[in-house]
């Protein structure tokens, strides 16, 4: 941006003028520096010995020893020069198209620093570097400058793997692998750049002032992404899954993905992307995705761009999860060769969003590895209005990728050949080593954050430079004219032809009507959108036969003879074997294992992940048995035929892992995908995924999803963070049959709801408040017959006591663990006219069957809703009117009474005695027992009347 006017305070590092980019943070200069001692020690000792010997031989052993010493010293210093350029040459590369980042050559990259001042003609031994055995210092210096300080800067010496470094070094330093394109290739690149520019120009003229988040200034990305398709295809890639934010998205959709221009113009004019009868809310055009096929050199590559919200980078884990699923479907998990994830980032977001690191962290983790992701950073050198020095604490936005030793290619966006070369090299590296790689394309935004923004409010000098800066195509056209590749006027002709095509498409858009939605094609064929949210969940046969039940029992209780399990696990398995022998006492974990095992046997996949999913946070699951001597794993459900069972202990991430599992479920409706929180409210860390994808993805983008969230929930005095899964937040998101929310109380009902999730002809995300104390509660058990015969998922669970309908005076409705507290107290006090009914599925709310039950209760006087959560939490505000509507349908003019904790800022107390007092009080109020003291902080609320007990 040039030198801005500041009042500098001498000695103040925050204000003292510094070398480096004008927008940079002064502290970055230190992070750019390297240790001379470390660099010297990094030289290969064997190579150093050879250098000395060769230099001595050149000097002649019979000559003056000082000459030998000088020749050897020259060689070592020359090799150190090479080494420093490999490590730090990118710092002197020509990266900024605007020329505003004043990147002076670091001192240690000069000949003077290495003692070669004025000695350009001196010959030194370098042992084969750049193909030279002996080379003049000046020639070596020129080669190093051209290689490492041109329009591409390579960061790769932070990689510890020698083979990977050697690969990149050879590709960068070998003449045949440098930036070289045929005349036809150069013409194709020019045509792509012109398409990118003219597309943005056309939109700007036809839709003046309309937001499009154009690519203007970064058009070199278009031929570069086409190179990814072409070279990826030749290297075995058959599918590419893209994720990106707003900038350039419409350009990528049109010019890379091949989405018809007329369709995008139709959307710009306010038209829907799908037929009106499909429904859904739709979304702004720069959030939408698409899928298509493109062919290069006779090789077809399927491509999909995943839709995303405005939350920058939130789509990243979704893309990786979808990639993993597609690799599994293609049987590509071992080679990771056929499906390539490509994530396109903004510079500020890549550096600033923590989800980027969470996704980078997946790159080498079993169960989440996708064989390397190609990251493309559109480096605008600015955020919305924020300069980089205020946006990050590192020299480059890509520095975060060094944490996983990903190589980084910094490239000047005004050189489309260089950007295309970088993408070609990136594909070759990824296909060879199956690891992440980053392309950091330095460019600029010709307009502001969007086309209606005024960027000179905050960056006047940068935008003065941009306004006078020539377009990429103009710079490149002149270069090709100078090379004799094209003639004068070729670019003008290409523009005219493309603008004519766009005008034809614009005219066609006026009569365009979408004729189909693409959400139930491919692997989703045969599934559909339920027509009736209330009744579509009925009549699903989820029970299994006795033969399968007994077979699963043997699988779940048989330990291989050579496997030494923990003695406590032995007792657990003995108790499980007793369940199958007696047919009684089936607990939560066994019901879950039966659901998983039966689905696998029927050919479905099951994928369960979470921070402690193998054992289970509460030592309840034991899906994985660890040999106590060798630590080898044995997974019983993996021994079953037909389907596939996977369980992974995930990285300590909620946002990233939940997004990954959502992406997996997006791609594979034939796998039951479950994410389990360590404790329910840990899902707070993934709220963006819940709000923007899980709850609203189908309505916005017509993308169905069957992801299951398991959130441990229940008030047992364990404090604010270990009690509530924030049920109220999920219920607030419920509308238009978008998700399912359940709070289940029996193992058999849990078994049936998991099987129902896969056996219905549609998919909806499901949130289950899973238990903690109920995992081993003596009342929360099921019998064998409840898994077989005519049994199915019960949205409403009847009372454990058989109270005649006409005798019921008060009905207590509740959900989850509190039901057993109520039942125990009711039975202890001998109350005979109060019925306790559990709502197992809160959304879609079972209003019709509840009304049928209420109608049978001819002497019902009161309906109570009892919950453990504070009044402003839990389900109360959601169920209040729904219960009243059900009562009215049953002919009863009753409104529900609230019995539970008072409103509270914290979801639960952390004091055991206070918790017990509150729990005792709220159950007493619900059952209409004796009044309790004020200190219990519970409330019974009647319609238009409130009374504290």
TrEMBL record:
Coiled coil: none annotated. Keywords: Glycolysis, Oxidoreductase, Thiamine pyrophosphate. Its cofactor is thiamine diphosphate. One of its GO terms (cellular component) is oxoglutarate dehydrogenase complex. Pfam families: E1_dh (PF00676), OxoGdeHyase_C (PF16870), Transket_pyr (PF02779). The keyword Cell inner membrane does not apply. It comes from the Bacteria. The keyword Oxidoreductase applies. InterPro entries: 2oxoglutarate_DH_E1, DH_E1, KGD_C_sf, ODO-1/KGD_C, THDP-binding, Transketolase-like_Pyr-bd. Residues 586-777 form the Transketolase-like pyrimidine-binding domain. Its EC number is 1.2.4.2. GO terms for biological process: glycolytic process; tricarboxylic acid cycle. Residues 1-41 are annotated as: Disordered. One of its GO terms (molecular function) is thiamine pyrophosphate binding. E1 component of the 2-oxoglutarate dehydrogenase (OGDH) complex which catalyzes the decarboxylation of 2-oxoglutarate, the first step in the conversion of 2-oxoglutarate to succinyl-CoA and CO(2). Homodimer. Part of the 2-oxoglutarate dehydrogenase (OGDH) complex composed of E1 (2-oxoglutarate dehydrogenase), E2 (dihydrolipoamide succinyltransferase) and E3 (dihydrolipoamide dehydrogenase); the complex contains multiple copies of the three enzymatic components (E1, E2 and E3). This is 2-oxoglutarate dehydrogenase E1 component. It comes from Pontixanthobacter luteolus.
